Amino acid sequence: MFKKRAIFALIICFIVVGSTTFGILMYLDRRDYRNYLQNQYEKDLYDIVNDVEGLSVSLSKVPVASSTKQKILVFSEIWKNASDAQQKLNSLPVSHTSISQTSKFLAQVADFSYSLLKASNSGQKLSQTELNNVEKLRDFAGYLSIQLRNFEASLTEGDIKWGEIKEGGSTSFNKAASKTIDAQFKTLSDEMQQYPTLIYDGPFAENVLNIKPRVLSEKEISQKEAKDIVSNILKNKNIESINLYSDKKGEKIPAYSFTVKIKDKKDEQVNIDISKNGGKVVYMLYTREVPKSSIDIKSAIKKGMEFLENNGYKDMIPTYSLKYDNVAVINYVYVKDKVVVYPDQIKLKVALDNGEIIGIEAAHYLVAHYEREIKKPRITAKEARVNVSQNLNVKNIRLTIIPMESQREILCYEFFGDYKGEKYLVYINALDGTEEKILKIIDTENGELTM
Q1: Residue 422: beta bridge partners?
Q2: Cα(439)–Cα(416) distance, rounded to whole angstroms?
Q3: Which of 207, 371, 388, 402 is the most exposed place for a label (fewest CB within 10 A)?
């Protein structure tokens, strides 16, 4: 009898010790994950603050920049700082509604600076209106910098933890913390609504995205279906978990936003948005280090083409590429009936160490893409060539559809050629022969830019 009681007590002891040990291990693992998230988002916020401060400084240089070379350098800095800040801002575990105006401000500054970059490169001087807008943007960037710096300090010193918010903690404290952060960002975002309206013809101009997204006409999918799509896209990854961190109902393209954890990769994660209509990738960013370049741009372009083909984006071709920090940024556009449709574009980031797709931006494609009935040209390529300067040594001609700031799409002949060693693209309306647009292709150490 005594033996039975002893054995029973021993079993109970093992169960208690085992469950306690398991509970402690689970707690430690959860704590480590929260600490990782805390550090990651603190770093992202730190980078955003630095980018916005750099943005403010570069904007202040514009009025005193005189030479074309310096203007191009300054506008390039503005474009990069604004783009980087916007990307990191969108990765924070904050509702998109709360940061929408701030994100829009950064996107507009990036696009505006790009349009001024084009103008400066072509020898145009800034108008007084443009200079006034630059001054106002500098003031707003300065205000944003101060507010973000204060916000960073309050988070660092306070009790609010990014990790708990990211995990969607169920306690009333975590929910209150999340609402507090959302409220602070929302207040800041509301202030940013007052920045000046910018009129320009940039490559990603807001007026191009002003139409109702075509993807909204597609069938709505469930959260589970969206999660399955994420699993399929990342099927080559050793996925540990896929968690919904935001339900972007109020966005231009409503989406399910997921965070994907990779097994044995605590310092890596994937943020991915899947559209509620049609189940398409709107945005993806895989945060991992790319320590070296082992493949060339040509191989990276091929990898991107294969990815698009395998994920339902048919008939896409590359148009330009840039290389930054062992990552290739490649733009692809849709082709129909041998006509290049520039509004339907997708940007991919390809890691040059192994050819992996680590970034996707497909909003423009999802807004603009539909099955167009493309008109037949009323004039021939030969007739259109008459309206192109005879100084241009034409090397290639193709039909394209280009977007205009008026939200119209125009069928054009694209003439690619060179003049005195410099490359240009000239667009001639294929219906009436009007010269619609001229772009200059600039060779940089990172790749080609069209201006």
Answers
A1: 419
A2: 10
A3: 371
The one-letter amino acid at 335: V
pLDDT digits (tens, 9 = 90+) for 122-148: 777 877 778 888 888 888 888 888 888
23-32 per-position pLDDT tens digit = 554 544 555 5
CB atoms within 10 A of CB 235: 8
Handedness of CA 55, 57, 60, 61 (dihedral sign): negative
- In total, the chain counts a number of residues equal to 451
In this structure, is residue 376 part of a structural domain? no
Over its C-alpha atoms, the chain yields an Rg (Å, rounded) of 26
pLDDT tens track for 256-297 = 999 999 888 877 889 899 999 999 999 898 888 899 999 999
Q: 41: helix, coil or strand?
A: helix
- At 96 the three-state DSSP class reads helix
Query: Pairing relation of β-strands 435-444 and 422-429?
Result: antiparallel
* 245-263 burial code (b ≥16 CB/10 A, e <16): bbebeebbbbbbbbbbbbe
Strand partners, 247: 256
Range of the domain at 432: 381-450
Q: Is 232 exposed, middle or buried (0-12, 13-18, 19+ CB in 10 A)?
A: exposed
Same domain, 358 and 263: yes
